[in-house]
């Protein structure tokens, strides 16, 4: 395809929002114990420190769809990049816990906006047969962000341990209080994201929805490689939009659309209660409960991030060949077995090597990364019509971030009240309704155009 190189560039540019999402989400795991000690946080405040960014994410996702439907995908992504930049720089120089939390919330707003707009933009510029793997670039970027955060945390902790404290800002940020350097390192990729966004065009499907057909055709021609192909691509979109007259909310409140939004919201929130973010946020703390030192725990977390990233590469290659639903069946089944094994370790594994725990943590991450993590943003970006895609994705995304916030806030309490064995058993149980919803209520979208998927929901009305 003539335009595939350009599509890859646009997809990679939008996916940088996923990198920042991943870094901002994962970097917190290496700072929890230091921030808790420095500011004397109890279990509740510790959960708030972890979860406060998710409050920002909930706010961001609440208006991201409406913002993108009104002003466009490009402006919305630029706003997210600005939030990331301000947050990272502010966290590095925060004078107290209050300022730190405020800047974390600002970063969370950026996460919420990027989590909706980045995959939406990619889905709208991608052709059907490659859409799954192109949208999966966003999830791959998230996992690269996770891994980058874990490596930065590990490297800065080692640097701090070997450095000599002095009365300088550098010493404060990287030696005496290295959590500042961990959080502040995000400033550079955030600025890079902001600059790159100047070089990408607006989504042609959004332009069509706003009546700017000539501009949309010019952009789509460059994407498709020829004007004839571009007219064919946009013709289906124009036809669907002309049929869907009326306000966005009126269209969204149709029974078929409400059903699609409810299904998207259900799989979004259930996915958070299957444990993945508990592992990504609190992995070092959980490893420490098994008897590992802080340094070893962070090294194990680097391995978790590496497996997460490499498995996502595999998922990216096979998602358009195997299909969304088959990946979920395979992966969630493996997640259940891995979670049960982790629960067993904490119940009966006293005296056993921590390698057993690491192996099943890595297996859990493998099965999760190849299934629900790779599929969720693809499905949410595919399921809804162009006319209300931003609004519908915001509603489903809101559900996802509410679930993520609850897990971030409740995991310390769960680990303390149910102990690790009970917590991971609960995560295993929550996998069951997820796989049932995918089996009976979600269509297979592999290889279908966005307009064909929209037709499916109309026929289900």
Describe the structure.
The structure is a single chain. By secondary structure, the chain is mainly α. It is 83% helix and 0% strand. α6 runs antiparallel to α16 (294-322).
List the helices and strands and how they pair.
Layout: H1 4-26, H2 32-39, H3 43-71, H4 73-92, H5 97-125, H6 128-162, H7 169-176, H8 179-184, H9 187-196, H10 204-209, H11 213-224, H12 227-243, H13 248-252, H14 255-272, H15 276-289, H16 294-322, H17 324-348, H18 354-369, H19 372-382, H20 389-417, H21 419-441, H22 450-459
Helix pairs in contact: 1-4, 1-5, 1-6, 1-9, 3-4, 3-5, 3-20, 4-5, 4-9, 5-6, 5-19, 5-20, 6-16, 6-19, 11-12, 14-19, 14-20, 14-21, 15-16, 15-20, 16-17, 16-18, 17-18, 17-21, 20-21
Brief descriptors of the model:
461 residues, mainly alpha, 22 helices, 83% helix, 0% strand, globular
Q: Quick gist of this model?
A:
The chain has 22 helices and no strands. It is mainly alpha-helical. The longest helix has 35 residues, at 128-162.
Mean pLDDT: 85
Report, as a whole number of angstroms, the end-to-end distance.
36 Å
What class, by secondary structure content?
Answer: mainly alpha
Number of helical stretches of at least 4 residues: 22
Please state roughly what percent of the residues sit in beta strands, choosing from under 5%, 5-15%, 15-25%, 25-35%, 35-45% or over 45%: under 5%
How would you spell out the order of helices and strands? HHHHHHHHHHHHHHHHHHHHHH
* Low-confidence spans: none
* Global outline: globular
Largest sheet: none
